[in-house]
Design brief:
Thiol Ester Dehydrase, Chain A; alpha+beta; 140 residues; 5 strands; five-stranded antiparallel β-sheet
C-alpha cells in the first residue's frame, strides 16, 4: 500500500516531482478492456494487431495515461487535491511487457487559485517518451 505524505500547498516548489513504475501484462490490458468497454482488436487480437501500423498488440493509451493519476496523487500527498485539467499526447505505442515510468513535476505554482501546473510524462524502459502532457491540480 502506498503511503501519502503530508504536504500543504505552501510547501510546494517548482521542481518537486513524483514517479510511479509499472510493467503492463496482457491480463491487465484485458481487465482494462472489460472495465472501459474498449475491446478494440489492436489491444486484444494479436493476428489483427500484426496487420496494423503497430505490428502487434498495444496497451490502451488511457491505461498508460492512468499511471499519471497515480504519479499526481503521490506528488500531491494529503490533504488531497483534484485534477482539473490533463492534456495527453500519445507519442509511441506501449506493449505488454513494457515497463513505464510515469512522472509528474511541478513547473508552476499559481497561489491565487491554489493550483499547481505539472509536466506529466511516461517513459518506457528504453528511455523513450511514450506520452507527454500537462496537469493542473487544485490543492486542498
Amino acid at each position: 500500500m502506498t503511503t501519502y505524505r503530508q504536504k500543504s500547498f505552501e510547501e510546494f516548489r517548482v521542481g518537486d516531482h513524483a514517479a510511479v513504475v509499472r510493467t503492463f501484462t496482457q491480463e491487465e490490458v484485458e481487465r482494462f478492456a472489460e472495465l472501459s468497454g474498449d475491446r478494440h482488436p489492436a489491444h486484444l487480437d494479436e493476428e489483427y494487431a500484426r496487420g496494423t501500423r503497430f505490428g502487434g498488440r498495444v496497451v490502451h493509451g488511457m491505461l498508460t495515461a492512468s499511471l499519471l493519476s497515480a504519479a499526481n496523487a503521490l506528488l500531491l500527498g494529503v490533504p488531497g487535491a483534484i485534477t482539473v485539467e490533463q492534456t495527453l499526447r500519445f507519442l509511441r505505442p506501449v506493449r505488454t511487457g513494457d515497463t513505464v515510468t510515469a512522472r509528474s513535476e511541478v513547473v508552476e505554482i499559481l497561489p491565487a487559485q491554489r493550483r499547481l501546473r505539472c509536466r506529466t510524462t511516461c517513459v518506457n524502459q528504453y528511455g523513450e517518451l511514450v506520452l507527454a502532457g500537462e496537469a493542473i491540480e487544485q490543492k486542498d
